[in-house]
Amino acid sequence: MPTVVGVKLGYAGKVLYFDPAGTDPQPGDPVVVSTERGEEFGTVVFGCREVPDEEIVAPLKPVVRIADEVDVRRAQELAAADAEALEIFKQMVEQHGLDMKPVAVETLFDGSKKVFYFVAEERVDFRALVRELASTFKTRVDMRQIGVRDEARIVGGVGHCGQQLCCARMRGDFEPVSIRMAKEQDLPLNPLKISGLCGRLMCCLRYEYDAYKDFKQRAPKCGSIVETPKGPGKVTALNTPKEIVAIKLEDGSELKVPLSAMECEASGGRPCRVRAEALQAPTPSVAPVLEALAAVPSTAGQAEDAASEAEQPPARRKRRRRTATKPEAAAPAPEPPQAETQRPAPRKRRRRKPKGQPNGDKGNTPT
Known about the structure:
By secondary structure, the protein is an alpha+beta fold.
């Protein structure tokens, strides 16, 4: 079996194998390797190890040397120059009016070539742009069209889960992800919840699909009836990460048991059965608690007495309470209730006599 070294390059999608060529790099060491494009700068992921011949797809390229301080400084200078070249690349694309999105610029370690990465939905005629880029940077230019997933891998970011994107953290070949994987994991078929920053289905759906599929093949289906020591019950939910089955009994209570405590047949001829051992909760032993209480030193009683004395009010408060309760005569006498003021009776109105009527009785009229 050949001996290889795993190296991660700048924009490579996965860890590549290289021939140690007499060197012994350790994980984390910077190295300069030879590739089909030229010399490149990378980081060692794992040291020298033997791998089967089937894993070697192409002839192994050698490790040129373990990078020293000069090589590391040059790699940093190239990275800073690539950031400036990306801004120039964006300006030229805008001037030419091309329907493309610049993503990154990579300069090989030996300076023999610059690779320009971009995203475009259709084919783009960039021949004029290539001539202008070559005349500006005075080097060979390689235009590389990539997809949205490769863009997310190069740019990086944080996903819905709050972690680094899977495509940037766990490098490798992109495997197809289908909507069936989301259905198998009982996820809501909402594009906003099952899509990543790239707009495609999240890569983690592929990573967890096998675990969900294996668990559901061994566990009873939701809605099926199972036998328990407390009577028949109905499966209401499945917890795949913990491999726990939730069962609702006839009396309305809920029972959660691990799948390892159930007996199920793949043929489905009879319902699953929960073993009685799964419902026997271990009784807690009180002996260690009693021993711990007996070993408490006697100073605990003194501390309790001190605490009770601290809770009692001081003597001054007692005296004040006595003086306040003794003299009843010293208390001010209640004021006599004030007599209610009587309102004067309302005055009667006099009727006005009509003009021309003399004083006297109402019945006497002038003759």
